[in-house]
Amino acid sequence: MSISANLDAVRSLLPEGVKLVAVSKFHPKEALEKAYDAGQRVFGESRVQELSSKQEVLPEDIEWHLIGHLQTNKIKSVVPYIHTIQSIDSWKVLSEIDKYASKVDRRVNCLLEIYIAKEDTKYGLTFEECRYLLANENWKALKNIQIAGVMGMATNTDDESQIRQEFRSLKTFFEELKQQYFKGDSCFCEISMGMSHDYKIAIEEGSTIIRVGTSIFGEREY
Ligand SMILES: *Cc1c(COP(=O)(O)O)cnc(C)c1O
Question: What is the homologous superfamily of the domain 3-217 according to CATH?
């Protein structure tokens, strides 16, 4: 199937209000152009260098999401154009983004990456670490970031009930944070969960952003 047919297939399953991030990491810019020509405007990349080199040559109206682990020394280069950084896993990263965003007078959407999987290869904050980060209310003084929600990755397994349970735990945690810290803040609204093999479950469990690569662009070449 072509990229545009793959996109149509994913889109046909998207309820209103759920955003599709086309995850284009490891695919050449030509693949992104095909998706762009098929109307896709939101793309996700996991490595800063690859993201920057694509951003430089692709249309300006693309909404870029960074979904991979971010080192603090790379923050400066993405802040001028990034729409959302989905991989916030420390106070340090959050405060550095704010620092550079204030220099270029932007506000960057940030999602708190939460560790929900039962495997130890994934980045992210545990529920406890995240509660701890927010309980110290220093983040409220950061004017150039918007904490817009949470992101998580389920365990890479065929066990649907486990995946469902992990997504459900993220949704419940989102509600807890909303209640405790973001009650009047309509911008705290995103639950980014669901990839190629589990986005249908994620949507059933309340996802507002799915991040789909393989089902759109095919297998990645590493
Ligand atoms: C690569 C990646 C995806 C997309 O994975 P697919 O299985 O190809 O859909 C989604 N989220 C994150 C954080 C990723 O690194």
Answer: Alanine racemase (3.20.20.10)
